[in-house]
Amino acid sequence: MLTHHLRTHRSDENLAREGQLAWQLAGIAVDPVELDDDVVEMVVNRVIDNAAVAAASLARRPVVSARSQALAHPVSIGGDGATVFGADAARRTSPEWAAWANGVAVRELDFHDTFLAAEYSHPGDNIPPIVAVAQHLAASRGLTGRDVVRGIATGYEIQIDLAKAISLHQHKIDHVAHLGPSAAAGIGTLLGLDQETIFQAIGQALHTTTATRQSRKGEISTWKAHAPAFAGKMAVESVDRAMRGETSPVPIYEGEDGVIAWLLGGPDATYEVPLPEPGEAKRAILDSYTKEHSAEYQAQAWIDLARKLHEEYPLILDEPSRIESITLHTSHHTHYVIGSGANDPQKYDPDASRETLDHSIPYIFTVALQDGTFNHETSYDPERAHRADTVELWKKVSTVEDAEWTRRYHSNDIAEKAFGGRVVIRLADGGEIVDEIAVADAHPLGARPFAREQYVTKFRTLAEWVLEAAEIERFLDLAQRLPELGPDELGGLTITAAPGALVGVEIPTGLF
């Protein structure tokens, strides 16, 4: 890896293209280096993972809304259009709207892959816009599954490299500001565009996808699922404009009125961004990890610890009156974003939105502790959230920052990087239960790491309610052959709901 030194430059310094981060990112996108086999394997896993969580969300209101918006638009004349999750594969729309609808479906349940460092991210959000463009232009450009894999690997590489170095949330900027550039670069790799075009697309994508973090604060709204889909849609449109010769603000990161100076660390801030050298394999996807449970990633390990305690202490933990308090000693991020350190009363409110509850570690830990399991639907059911014994115990759960767990959270050593912590359960009789967990069971270093078998099982489990058995097998066969797919097969990278499965789902109306 090489390190790109990033700082603000005055306009009269005339920072050359070669010194700009966006140009370096575009250089990664055009690098023809071959992909390692384990990277290809993981790309296939994540395509399956995305489809799994999308299938589970097909009847949820934000997904229905986004799908209806997309299907209100015809196929643009520049290609054959792209498919929309849930709809018949023959029903296509323009690629930016397919990216939008599929992006919402993938993100709605907060159930796909993650990478956490200086910034947090869901790099699987790169997949919908890249696949949408591939389907749209497959025939005219002769695009193959191998091209799709290469584009996805670029998207992951760039988003994860940015997340390793540049904190957005510290300055209350939403993390999708790293997604717009990465998705634009991934589309550039897919299409084999030149460095100048990708450079302009990255700048436009960043400029149009920078927003505040209020979408993940307090009463969290349905925009949480739409934000990454919007970034993907903007990436598609940015590439289109750049291909037509349109330019972007330059230098987008380093300018004296640019992103670093006014949205992030300020005119004196510096960042050290790790990037692969020319000819170096793009392997960042292997640093990311998926979810076994539908909740914020920092909650994954805590759910696993809670279900372990449920099995070990059933006679103690089945009655809230036996418990005086539960304290989760954890990282700065977990405490201040999904813990009591956020000072969001909504995180303790049984009437809070589903989006709020999946970012409330006090609620999530309570339910997992009581039930010994965690489900993407039943664990968030309003009746479940209002259960008297749950509310009583929930109010007793708090988080505190622990310096050691914060250090491990930010460690660059994969062997010690951790997203869990230590729990102290004080009992009414004066006793204590103390335990800890570093990483989730599904993490590569966890008790039961996810591999192809687990990704396939996750898809089957989440899709069986809405897809026919033959459709499940068709998609799994196609997805696992992704690197060998020809142009005529890329349209099959979608899922079609079984006849009648979505009957009764109310379709909202709007402008389109």
UniProtKB/TrEMBL annotation:
- Stretches assigned to the MmgE/PrpD N-terminal domain: 21-271
Q: Show the InterPro entries listed in the entry.
A: MmgE/PrpD_sf (IPR036148), MmgE/PrpD_sf_1 (IPR042183), MmgE/PrpD_sf_2 (IPR042188), MmgE_PrpD (IPR005656), MmgE_PrpD_C (IPR045337), MmgE_PrpD_N (IPR045336)
Listed A to Z, the keywords are: Lyase
The broad enzyme category this protein falls into is lyase
Q: What is its EC number?
A: 4.2.1.79
Q: Which domain of life, per UniProt?
A: Bacteria
Q: Which Gene Ontology molecular-function terms are recorded? A: 2-methylcitrate dehydratase activity
**MmgE/PrpD C-terminal domain sequence ranges:** 293-481
Q: Which reaction(s) does the protein catalyse, per the Swiss-Prot or TrEMBL entry?
A: (2S,3S)-2-methylcitrate = 2-methyl-cis-aconitate + H2O
The record's PANTHER family line, in alphabetical order, gives: 2-METHYLCITRATE DEHYDRATASE, 2-METHYLCITRATE DEHYDRATASE-RELATED
Q: What is this protein called?
A: 2-methylcitrate dehydratase
